[in-house]
Amino acid sequence: MDRPSIDLDWERQRAWVEIDRAALRHNVCQIQALVAPATKIMAVVKADAYGHGAIEVARTLVAAGVEWLAVATIPEGIELRAAGIVAPILVLGAIDTDVQVRAICQWELQPTICTIAQATLISKAIAQLAPRKPLHVHLKLDTGMSRLGANWQQAVAVYRELHALPYLEIASLYSHLATADDLDPTVMELQVDRFERSQAAIRAAGYTLPMLHLANSAGILVGDRLHYQLVRPGLILYGLYPAPHLASAIDLRPVLSVRARITQVRDITAGTGVSYGYRFIADRDLTIAVVEIGYADGIPRRLSDRLQAIVRGQLVRQIGTITMDRIMLDVSQIPDLQVGEIVTMLGADGNNKIGADDWATELGTISWEILCGFKQRLPRISVN
Fold first, then answer.
1. Structural domains in the chain, sorted by start
2. Which end of the chain has the lower number of beta carbons within 10 A, N or C?
3. Which member of 228, 241, 276, 353 is catalytic?
4. Torsion (CA) 159, 163, 165, 168 in degrees, nearest 10
5. How does pLDDT run across 18-32, given as a tens digit for each residue?
């Protein structure tokens, strides 16, 4: 039996994420103004573009002049290619199987190399393919992150081996900063020094350096000496600052807003408990609104009784335990509230706004985690 079609027009959705494409374009322009004309931008769109929707974000970024994209995994890269995006895509994660190499080659992605073993695997796997085309690869050095990458002290040895392998062309040499958002630059300066010493050693061994990149979002804002030939913005693309002391370096606009609809408005009397566990009991008569969004959508349950929302431009408090699909708000100060009215969970409404940083501060975490937490059952709606 054929299933009946369902009209999922976003005006009638229970909850959704809005992606402000004008804000995204604005942020790109701000980054472009910070870097030299010859410095290219590699937009980091891993984790579904930090929860913003990788395909539409990537399309907007490329149209705005971004020349490179970066993802964490091969499937993330394939998703972009299948959507028709042709910009060069760097896979930041490690490659360790023949199957991955075949996928990399088929979808014209560019892998990160961290070890000689990985490079050898890739070269041998390409030798079994037809046709055998050279593959652009990117050598990553560990200069202090203690994560992926070849030891910076072994840069020449790894570079020499990689350069000698057939079917591989070294497209870039890069590293990743661990503390660029700290007020104390000591560790960052140590990493920069190691990166530059690695470059000097490779040049002294008789090799021409490929494209260099080091700066993440914080590194971009710290200063142009870290920009090299390419920069890798992530968080700042989406309108948030990696640290408060870097906010003066650039004017950013948040790209993501989260909104939901009211499905019931009801009056309760003093002494009435609200939601699971009765962690909230009304100390007076209240009007409450039931809103169709919960922790299954990405609203952290740990924010129960600590969350605010915006209704008709006014800040209201969330009360009771946040449930899987719903939250309750105290809307006593807003008269004649109607079912279907929109609640802003993150974003701006009138003169009030709530940002991912506000939630992160309350939870003792970082804004990156907040953005990546919004689940796929919330449709992404492009505006502007």
1. 21-244 (3.20.20.10), 256-354 (2.40.37.10)
2. N
3. 276
4. 110
5. 999 999 999 999 999
